[in-house]
Amino acid sequence: MSYKKCPYCGGMVENDVCSHCGAPVPPSKQVDADGEPAPPPFIGYNSIGYEVDPIPWEQVSEIGLWTALTETVKEVLGTPEDFFSRLSPSGSIGNPLSYGIIMGVVGVLFANIWALIAKALGFGVSSMMGSDFSNLMAQSAGGIFAIVFTIIGFAIAVPIWLFVYSGILHATLTLIGGAEEGYQATFRCVCYSQTSLIFQIIPFVGNLIALVSMIILLIKGLATLHDITTGKALFAIFLPAILCCILFVPFMCMIGGLAGAAGSCSG
C-alpha cells in the first residue's frame, strides 16, 4: 500500500495532515514511503510535556507569519497550561527568540505611544493657560522620533535581556533544585511569556496588566516545563528580587552611616 510520509516526524499523511504529529503537510512537502510501515499513532503526553500538536509559531514556514503569530498569542493567553504542556523543553532557540523580540518591540511601541499621548494631553491643558501651540507640536514631533529610536534600541536590547534574564532565572531554579530541564526550557518559557506584553496596547493601565500576566505565564510555564510545583516556580521568579533587597538594604545603611560619620567629622 502506497502512502505519503510527514517530513517532520515520519508519520502517515492523510488529507494533507500528519496523523502522527498533527502538522499540516502540503503535497509539495510530502515524502514517498512505499512499502514502509506507518509509525504507531501517538497515544499521550509524557511527564514533562514534549510537543504533541505543533506550536503555531514553530511551524511559521508552513502556515504563514500572521497566522502563526496570532494563533500563538491566542493559545498562550487563552490556554497557557495546554500550550506549555505541548511546548518541547529541548526545542530550538531561534523560533522563541524571534517571537520574544516581536512581542517585546510591540509592547515598547504601544507603551511609548500612550506615554506620548499622556504628555500631549498635559501640554494641551497648559496650552489653554497660554502655552505656545508650536511648542506642543515640536514636543510631539520629538516624541515620535524618540519612539522610533526606542524601538530600534529595544530590537537590539530585547534579545540580550531574554538571554540574561533566562540565565538568572535558570540559576535560581538550579539553586532551589527546580531545574529539572536544561537552560533551553527556561529560555523558551521566558520568550513565549513575552506574549503578556501585548496588553500594553491597553492605554495607561496596560503596563500593570502585562506585568501581572507575565508573572502568571512564567509560573505556569516553569512549573510545566521543569515539572515542579507552582510554589517553587513562584519562588524562583521572586528570589532574585529578594536577594537584591537583602543586599541593597545593608549597603544603603552602610552608606548612610559613612555619610553621618563624615558629617560629624566635618562638624
Topology overview:
Blueprint: E1 4-5, E2 12-14, E3 17-18, E4 31-32, H1 60-63, H2 65-78, H3 80-86, H4 94-127, H5 133-175, H6 183-193, H7 206-225, H8 230-266
Antiparallel strand pairs: 1-2, 1-4, 2-3
Helix pairs in contact: 2-3, 3-7, 4-5, 4-6, 5-6, 5-8, 6-7, 7-8
Using brief descriptors, characterize the structure shown:
267 residues, mainly alpha, 4-stranded antiparallel β-sheet, 4 strands
In brief:
With 267 residues, the chain is mostly helical. The protein is built from 8 helices and 4 strands, in the order ββββαααααααα. Helix 5 (133-175) packs across helix 8 (230-266).
Mind explaining what this structure looks like?
The chain is mostly helical. The chain has one domain. Helix 2 crosses helix 3, helix 3 packs across helix 7 and helix 5 runs antiparallel to helix 6. The longest helix has 43 residues.
